Amino acid sequence: MNATLLDHHVLGPALPRAPYDHPFRAEFRAWLREHATGEPEPLDQDARFEFRRRWHHTMAGGGWTGLHWPVEYGGRGADPVLQFMYYEELALARAPEPVNTPGLILLGPTLMAHGSDLLKRAFLPGILSGGQMWCQGFSEPDSGSDLASLRTRAELDGDDWVVTGQKTWTTFGQYADFCFVLARTEPGSARHHGLSMLICSLDQPNVTVHPIQQISGDAEFCEIFFEGARVPRDWVLGEAGQGWQVAMTLFQFERGDQGYTDHARLLVRLLDCERVLGEAGDLPPERVRAAREELRRLWVRCQELRLLNYRGTLLAAAGRSLGAVGSMTNLVWGELEKDLGSLQAEVAGARGLVLGRADTHHRLASRAASIYSGTSEIQRNIISERLLGLPR
Amino acid sequence: MITDPLTSDDHLEIGAIVGDFTQRVFSSDRVREAAAGAPGFDELAWKQMVELGWSGLGVPAVAGGAELGVFVQCIVHRELGARLAPSPYLATAAFAATALDELADPELSGGLLAAIAGEPTLLALVLGHGRGWSSAPSPLVTATRSGAGWVLDGAVPLVPDAARAQRLIVVAAIDERNWGLFRVDAKGVSHPVRTVDSTRAFGDLLLRETPAVALHRETFDRARIDGLVDRLAVFLAAEMVGAAIACLNQTLDYLRTRRQFGRPIGSFQALKHRCADLAVGLTTAQELVFAAAETADTGDAAALALFAPLALARAGEVLKRTSEEGIQLHGGVGFTDEFDIGRYYKRALADLEILSGPATAYARMDAVRRGWPA
Ligand SMILES: Cc1cc2nc3c(=O)[nH]c(=O)nc-3n(C[C@H](O)[C@H](O)[C@H](O)COP(=O)(O)OP(=O)(O)OC[C@H]3O[C@@H](n4cnc5c(N)ncnc54)[C@H](O)[C@@H]3O)c2cc1C
């Protein structure tokens, strides 16, 4: 225990409304100093998931989860600015990455916005405590960027929906207890109409989950086959047939939550690159020079991402919607994550090819960052059409 | 359009008032007319701005100013940038006023600051150490005692608005370590230079035993000059993002209306994605500028020493990029003098030289970061 916490300077210049001498930072740092270990995440996927789950329980035990969730749902009802500082402090403590983000960041807030009291009571406590794990069942083999073309369907049979179809790229499906499934519930409906967001238990015989091998060596995402899976009639988020609107709410969280687009973790990794470059390694001087230049460019881009997260925070604090800032944040983060993954392996030189090393793994894993939660191209479409008003 | 960092009702109201005024007073025709006659100057507009109290926004209340701070003043700069206004506002109300406020003794400079706030005064700031945060190999301007007063010697190329200024505020070297702030009459020492950007009145400066009045009581070191440049950079960067926003908007208007191949060219995805990237760069640059402005107002000099170069570098890069793309996306008409889009490009080129470009700003950023604990 007793982690060393990195200095605030690592984050860049102090932001006027999230100052480094804020009492919240001091309070959280005191707790982190006691409870965080700074231990690197295991490379083995199962061990890594367990490692994150354990950390989540530690944080839940200290009351440090769901900071900005309303008190009635078990949170602290904190100002979004505290949440901004919270993520920064976690990164400076080199704390494990969050677990169960589909539950914590996506479904939880969407439930609060659209869910019935029954669903909120049934699911919010488990999401916050980490007792129940979630996954996101949107993409299908033939419906990725064009999500509205999806074909998974659900029909009412007595008091249950019966779900039939295939989802794919479902991250952490193998660890999840529940999946939120976007399905066509009105036969003959097309595109954005007639869809519903259903909460489906994965613990039933008519559901099969197959992990898919990734280029990173992990098998985090899965295909899920629903062959007559049953969902209680009122486990629908929002109204039946309004699933697209509910999904849009969810995308707001997916594209703008700092938990997904954290600048602070990137800045800590940049610091590590800087330290490696400062050691007398065997990287040729030409490559050291090029890496230093790239490092500086990435630091500037991290500051830009930081200000986008800050703007998103201030908008949330003012009760205003994120709008296209979410797409910008997502785009900037995804491209940056890939370039940082490349730099981390680059500073290791040829050793960045060796399996079993974190930098080797991260470079490969980072290639997904501009694909999931809407590809960079789709974000640019959204920015140019919705924000800039360019014609379709 | 892109997210506006102005959120409070007060700021939004100021933004609306300033936007109204600049739109009326700095119409494209009037800007072209004023700039064609005497580069960088619209006399009537300047008088009106002084009457509205805008020249004194950053001037301390004791000197008769409004003392509203950097953030509010940046709202004005952003709008002036958007209209490519030929105005002495940057040189006088931002650069000269800030230097006087930061480095001069209030008793010696109070009259000048009061004049900035209350009359259509014309001042220019001469940085005798080099351009922006960079240092010339030896000081560009030196000060020597002469009897009871001082004389200045040196040459400084392309000082913004020096061609129109009545008086010059000069940062000059006294010896190896000590610098001072001086006032000289502009007459006979500044020589107008015609540049690609006719909306700014650049002048070459030649000082030869030019009599000067000292405005400092204590001399200051090189670090203080860098701190001054930090503050100047925020104002210039605000003008640059303002210009870039207007430039992008004009380009978007054109993309929505110009048709080729039977459809608006703005529906071509290759162009859409380029505009999206411009919008992202512009959004983050603008966030940096207003974070820097807010930081200047809170008085956190250490944070400003990073935010200011970041803002200046990114605003400069973004304005240049946006105006280059603006010309390209307009096709042939983008290359005509009749269309305004090329004027943004020329303004970009000029603005990038005022405090030197991104390279020196990044060097400042590096130097500040090296001074930090790891
Ligand atoms: C690591 C990882 C985890 C994921 N986790 C989940 C998950 O948990 N749940 C889930 O539901 N999904 C998940 N996804 C799926 C992800 O959302 C999709 O991969 C993504 O939406 C793209 O869809 P696609 O793979 O079908 O690619 P396609 O849509 O076929 O796109 C292929 C290429 O074409 C481009 N393209 C497509 N349409 C356009 C257009 N209109 N304009 C310009 N370019 C276009 C894309 O940008 C891309 O470059 C995950 C993906 C990855 C890589």
UniProtKB/TrEMBL annotation, chain A:
Stretches assigned to the Acyl-CoA dehydrogenase/oxidase C-terminal domain: 241-388
Family: Belongs to the acyl-CoA dehydrogenase family.
Species the sequence originates in: Acrocarpospora macrocephala
Domain of life: Bacteria
Keyword annotations of the record: FAD, Flavoprotein, Oxidoreductase
GO molecular function: flavin adenine dinucleotide binding; oxidoreductase activity, acting on the CH-CH group of donors
Protein name per its UniProtKB record: Putative acyl-CoA dehydrogenase FadE
Gene3D superfamilies (UniProt xref): Acyl-CoA dehydrogenase/oxidase, N-terminal domain, Butyryl-CoA Dehydrogenase, subunit A, domain 2, Butyryl-CoA Dehydrogenase, subunit A, domain 3
Record bears the keyword Flavoprotein: yes
Keyword Oxidoreductase attached: yes
A GO term from the CC aspect: plasma membrane
InterPro entries named among the record's database cross-references: Acyl-CoA_Oxase/DH_mid-dom, Acyl-CoA_Oxase/DH_mid-dom_sf, AcylCo_DH-like_C, AcylCo_DH/oxidase_C, AcylCoA_DH/ox_N, AcylCoA_DH/ox_N_sf, AcylCoA_DH/oxidase_NM_dom_sf, Mycobact_Acyl-CoA_DH
Annotated ranges, domain Acyl-CoA dehydrogenase/oxidase N-terminal: 24-130
One Pfam family, short name: Acyl-CoA_dh_1
Cofactor(s) recorded in Swiss-Prot or TrEMBL: FAD
Domain Acyl-CoA oxidase/dehydrogenase middle as annotated: residue spans: 135-227
UniProtKB/TrEMBL annotation, chain B:
GO molecular function: acyl-CoA dehydrogenase activity; flavin adenine dinucleotide binding
Residue span(s) of domain Acyl-CoA dehydrogenase/oxidase N-terminal: 8-114
SUPFAM superfamilies assigned to the protein according to its UniProt record, in alphabetical order: Acyl-CoA dehydrogenase C-terminal domain-like, Acyl-CoA dehydrogenase NM domain-like
Domain Acyl-CoA dehydrogenase/oxidase C-terminal: 235-357
Record keywords: FAD, Flavoprotein, Oxidoreductase
One of the Pfam families matching this protein, by short name: Acyl-CoA_dh_1
Cofactor: FAD
InterPro entries, per the entry: Acyl-CoA_Oxase/DH_mid-dom_sf, AcylCo_DH-like_C, AcylCo_DH/oxidase_C, AcylCoA_DH/ox_N, AcylCoA_DH/ox_N_sf, AcylCoA_DH/oxidase_NM_dom_sf
Family: Belongs to the acyl-CoA dehydrogenase family.
Record's protein name: Acyl-CoA dehydrogenase
Organism: Acrocarpospora macrocephala
Lineage: Bacteria, Bacillati, Actinomycetota, Actinomycetes, Streptosporangiales
